[in-house]
Design a protein that fits this description.
With 382 residues, the protein is of the alpha/beta class. It is built from 14 helices and 13 strands. Helix 2 packs across helix 9.
Length: 382
């Protein structure tokens, strides 16, 4: 049994009297989460703790768990219990006695743990974590008798398509990378357990930072791109050639990328446990995505990189060595920047309505505030 468990159950009765459920939460739940130490996971657990739920979090080591507890009050810390394990381990947990503790007690599982790699050479690891790992979490959930299983997938299981439906896609369709395919296979595996517990699939688009604080503990997607552009700014600032010349990034500026803030995604996930429908897929997407041109202009402004320019994909260029360097780094995003995808999010709208929440409205001002808070927090008054 993990260290905190006995204490946790002892405290359960006391805490029951101390906490008043908030945010319209009707019932305090016991929730098991994987991926809680990740970018999205951290945001979700801080929300669930504030709602008064008890959380069992799968963590790979003590250091990770200590990191999770940071910033929580003493009483909040008692709401989180570590379950040490790894999703690629067929039995999931290190200490099997935890099964007796969790048996028939878990209302909802949020399975978020995944390997987010677009690297072709990581195919084996990607499938091992995202498919076999998902199966291991499902088997464990079945063994301990959970009621609901919420799988966090990605809107990009749409693959190379341009219409994102709230339905399963064929796992044989064309995908941009193995990450997408592994998540699509993971979805299929999740729904194959529909007779064991309620299953739901939540599909966020590209997750960006918190709308209020800008905080984004990730190097994935937009943040990988920002890192690359920032690095190029540093490199070319020492190069006289760029004092009079633009630094060009070539992509289809009229397309859009579907960005969703992490706090919004966490809000949708949090209400899914109470208001979500079984065997339903939810696209957590932006109904009015900003164009890539707008996103790029805001990046240019907030990074204070005035000679950064978008080059048209129809133009004929000889890119400089430095420009080529950035394009090489951007190669994995090329597919995402070259087409717009129309996502249906009717199920998510219905879910939000049931929970009296509004659908996302990520306008230019909010995006700029978010990015500025991330890049130059000293310039932002919250
Ligand atoms: N970020 C996005 O833009 C985005 C967009 C759409 C969907 N999603 C989905 O959202 C979920 C969370 O993404 P994220 O951005 O928060 O990812 P992240 O920051 O990379 O976090 C990944 C999480 O998975 C855990 N994990 C990885 N391999 C594991 C293993 N073998 N055993 C146990 N835990 C393991 C990590 O644990 P450690 O801390 O120990 O490494 C971490 O908690 C994923 O399912 C992803 O597919 C993300």
């Amino acid at each position: 049994m993990d260290g905190g468990c006995i204490f946790h159950f002892f405290l359960n009765d006391i805490l029951e009297k101390v906490y008043q459920p908030i945010y319209g939460v009707e019932r305090r739940m016991n929730i098991f989460l994987t991926g809680a130490t990740g970018f999205l996971g951290k945001k979700l657990i801080s929300k669930l703790i504030k709602q008064g739920h008890f959380l069992y979090v799968l963590v790979r080591n003590e250091k990770k768990f200590a990191g999770l507890l940071k910033g929580n009050t003493a009483i909040e810390k008692q709401q989180i219990v570590a379950v040490y394990g790894d999703i690629t381990n067929p039995s999931l947990v290190k200490d099997h006695t935890v099964i007796n503790v969790m048996e028939n007690k878990i209302d909802t599982v949020y399975h978020m743990a995944a390997l987010l790699s677009f690297d072709e050479e990581m195919k084996k690891e990607t499938f091992s974590v995202n498919v076999d790992g998902t199966r291991n979490v499902l088997e464990f959930s079945k063994r301990i008798g959970v009621r609901k299983f919420i799988y966090v997938s990605t809107a990009y299981t749409v693959g190379k398509g341009v219409i994102g439906r709230e339905q399963l896609y064929s796992t044989e369709q064309e995908f941009v990378n193995y990450y997408e395919q592994s998540k699509a296979v993971g979805e299929e595996v999740v729904f194959s357990y529909k007779n064991d517990f309620e299953t739901m699939i939540m599909r966020p688009a590209i997750i960006i930072g918190d709308t209020k604080t800008g905080e984004a503990d990730t190097n994935f997607a937009l943040y990988g791109l920002l890192k690359g552009i920032r690095m190029m700014k540093r490199i070319i600032s020492k190069n006289d050639f760029y004092k009079t010349k633009s630094f060009r990034v070539v992509f289809a500026s009229e397309t859009n990328s579907n960005l969703v803030p992490v706090d919004y995604v966490a809000d949708v996930l949090a209400v899914a446990s109470e208001h979500g429908e079984k065997e339903t897929i939810y696209n957590i997407t932006n109904p009015n995505p900003l164009s890539n041109q707008t996103v790029f202009n805001i990046i240019k402004k907030t990074l204070q990189f005035p000679n950064l320019e978008i080059g048209s994909i129809d133009g004929e260029y000889e890119l400089t060595k430095e420009e080529l360097m950035l394009h090489e780094k951007m190669r994995v995003f090329e597919e995402y920047l070259s087409r717009s995808i129309e996502f249906d999010s009717q199920n998510t709208r219905t879910l939000l309505k049931a929970a009296s929440l509004e659908e996302l409205d990520l306008n230019e001002a909010v995006f700029e505030h978010m990015l500025l808070s991330y890049l130059q927090p000293e310039l932002v008054t919250q």
